[in-house]
Amino acid sequence: MRRRPGTGITARAPRPTIPTSRIASTRGCPCWRADSIWSEDLNNLLPFYRDVVGLPVARETPGFVVLGRGEAPVLALGTHSQVHGRNADPARHMVGLTTDDITADWKRLKDAGIPTAIWSSFSSSTARADPSSETKEGDMGAKAESLARQFEQKAQEATKVFDGLSDADWKKLTSAEKWSVGVVAHHVAASHEGIGGIVKTISSGQAMPHFTMQMLDAMNAKHAQEHAGCTKAETLALHKKNAAAAASQVRGLDDTVLTKTGTVLAGMPAMSVEQIITGILISHVDEHLGSIRATVGH
Question: Quick one: the chain helix, strand, coil %, rounded to 5?
C-alpha cells in the first residue's frame, strides 16, 4: 500500500478498533482492495479520516468515497440505507492504521484532541503506539491504574444515568438494540463480569474458548428475554457490584501484561489487554449509554 506524502499513513484492515458508526458490512470492495465502512451518512466519517488522519480522497461519487492514493486505495466510506444510528458493537468491525513515524503521528493526533482509544489503534513495527506509555522503573501498574480510573468514571456516569431513569423511561424501546431501556441497562451491568473475565484470561496468557459473533448475539438475545422484567433497583445493585470487581481487576494488573494479546472472537483480529479494556470494557458502557440517552432524551 502507498503512503500519502507528508503523512506516511496507510490503512490496513483488520487491526485494532476505531469505533465510528454502525457497520453494515465487514468486507472490502474487491475491485478496490479497500476495506469499507458504511454509515447512514458518510459525512459523519469523512472529516475524521480525510482531515484528521490525513488520508487523501482518491475517488468520490454521491454516497461513496475511496481514500488513499488512486492506484492503491485503502479505505472506502459509503452511505447505506440499511444502517442507522451509532454502532452498538464497536468490536464488530476493525480498521487499523499503520504509519512509518508513530511518534510524530501520535503527537499530531494527541494535539488534535483525538481520544486515546483512537490513536492507540495506530501501529508501527518500530515504536509503541503511545510514547508516553513507556513504563519507567518503579512505575509498574501506573497505566493499569489510569485505565481502572477511566472505567470507574464511565461506570459512575452509568450509575447516574440509570438512577435518573423514570418508570416510563425504563420501559421505552431503544432503536439501536431493540430492547427496553431496562434490559439495556441490565445488559451493561451483567457484562462487566464477562468482559472482566476476558481481561483476566488474556492477561494471564491463556487462550479464550472458541466463541463466535453468532454465539455472542444468541447469548445477548437470551439475556434480553430472561431479564425482560428486571427492576431498576436490582440492575443498579448488579452494576455497582460488577463494576467495582472489574475496576479492581484492572487496577491489579501489572503494566507489562497490557501488551499481551489474544483472540476474543473467532475470526476477529487479536487484541491486546489494553485494547480489551479501552475498546470493550469502557467502550461497551459508553455505547449503550449513548443508546439509552438517545431513547429517553436526557
Answer: 45, 15, 40
DSSP secondary structure code for residue 185 in this structure:
H
Q: Find out whether 81 and 88 touch, Cβ atoms under 8 Å.
A: no
**Residue whose C-alpha cell reads 451491568 in the numeric block:** 189
Grid cell 499503520 is found at 98
Pairing of strands 35-39, 122-123: unpaired
What cell was used for 101?
513515524
Global pTM reads 0.58
Domains, the chain: 9-133 (3.10.180), 142-296 (1.20.120.450)
pLDDT averaged over every residue in the chain: 78
- pLDDT by residue (tens digit) across 153-168? 999 999 999 999 999 9
Report pLDDT digits (tens) over 197-210.
999 999 999 999 99
